[in-house]
Structure formats: C-alpha cells, structure tokens
Amino acid sequence: MKLVRQFEQRLDGLLDGLAGRVFSGPLHPTELATRLIRTADLSLTDDLIAHNRFRMVIPDTGEGGVPKDLIDSLEQLIDEAALERGWRLEGPAHVTVSIDSDLRKGAVYMTSDRAPGPRRPWAILSNQQERIPITVNRSTIGRDAGCDVVIAHDQISRRHCSIWTSNEQMWIKDLDSSNGTRVDGESISGTPRSFASGAVIRLADISYRFELV
C-alpha cells in the first residue's frame, strides 16, 4: 500500500531508527498504520464519511512510551488516506495510543468514532474579492448556512455544487443548481467532472480560481 510505504519512510526519518527498537517483532509501526486505515475504511458510510478519532491500546513496549512523532505521523496518514480515497472527515484526525501491560505481544485493541471539529484547508477558492478555504473533503458549496462552504450570493443556489479529491484528482459535481456551474468555461451537469489545480470554477456569475494548499 503506497500510503503505508510513505508513512514508513517519513517515520524512519523522524525517529532515526527508534521505531524499529520500540516496536520490535510483529507490532511494527507499519502494522499500526495498516490497522488504522483498515479501521477507517470499515467505518465508511454510504456517503463516504469515515471516522476521524481513533484510540489504540498496545502492549508495553518496554521503551518508556510511544514517541509523539509516531502519533503525529498516524494522524497525518489518516488525512492523506482521506484525500487519496475520497473520504470525508467531519473533524481533524486524532489518534491516541495507550499501553496495557496485560496485552500479549503484538496485540492491538482499537476503537474509533466521528468527532466534528475545525480542519485545516486542503484547497482555496479565490478571486480579487475573497479567498475561501475548503477544509472538508466532499465539501458542499452553496448559499445555505448548512453547506461546508457558504457563499452568500443571490445567484448561487442553496446547495450549488460539491467538490472533492480522490485518486490524486479533483472532482466537482453540480447539484442541480439554478444558474449552473462551469469549469474552465465548460458547463457541467450532475455527472462528476475532473479538473486540475488552477482551474477557473464559475458558480452562477461568480468566478473563482481553485488552488490546492
């Protein structure tokens, strides 16, 4: 799995070989990463909403605890998996790892749930008047206060379009808006349309440039 390999490479650089000493035997950090992604994948709803809060219990490593860099890397892994696979996370990825000396070596106990909260932007819609962050993958854009990205303009529908990233591509879908959605001048319908960073997205009569963060 590409994400797990990237995770392992990043962690090796951060911990300078410490991971191999702390997690010897069957409980290497890559095993934690694999189980974490599997747990998130199993949590998916029909709308591709995944859990974003995870609690792991592992056996005593005998090395005085779990490195914080490992926790940070596991949280980053969940964010990366969501963007790669098109998942929606309702809040920031959060991972806790605690130690139970009674667990057998190699065992992992894990629970997860959804927890809303602020997320860092993964993209920006911008023009000369404003810069609008997109923080949630599979964001709904529209005039309604319940949308993820609210644009208070009379020509924009209450639920105008949705936008997301998956498999290293960006996608946009018109949600039967009254005044339409265009990407680089081309009108789109209810069928998802892929586009690239730097594209000009026109919602009704307002144009924005889409930029990945």
Description:
The chain contains four helices and 16 strands. It is an alpha+beta fold. The protein has a six-stranded antiparallel β-sheet with strand order 7-6-16-15-12-13, with no helix packed on it. It has a five-stranded mixed β-sheet with strand order 9-8-10-11-14. The protein has a three-stranded mixed β-sheet with strand order 4-2-5, with helices on one face. Helix 1 (2-15) crosses helix 3 (29-42), helix 1 runs antiparallel to helix 4 (68-85) and helix 3 (29-42) crosses helix 4 (68-85). The longest helix has 18 residues, at 68-85. 27% of the residues are buried.
What is the 3D shape?
elongated
SS-based structural class?
alpha+beta
The N- and C-terminal alpha carbons lie at a distance of 24 Å
The largest sheet, given as strand count, sense and whether it forms a barrel, is:
6 strands, antiparallel
Series of secondary-structure elements, N-terminal to C-terminal: HHHEEHEEEEEEEEEEEEEE
**Helix content percent band:** 10-25%
Strand order of the largest sheet: 7-6-16-15-12-13
Q: Could you give the count of β-strands?
A: 16
Share of β-strand residues:
25-35%
Query: How many whole angstroms does the radius of gyration measure?
Result: 20 Å
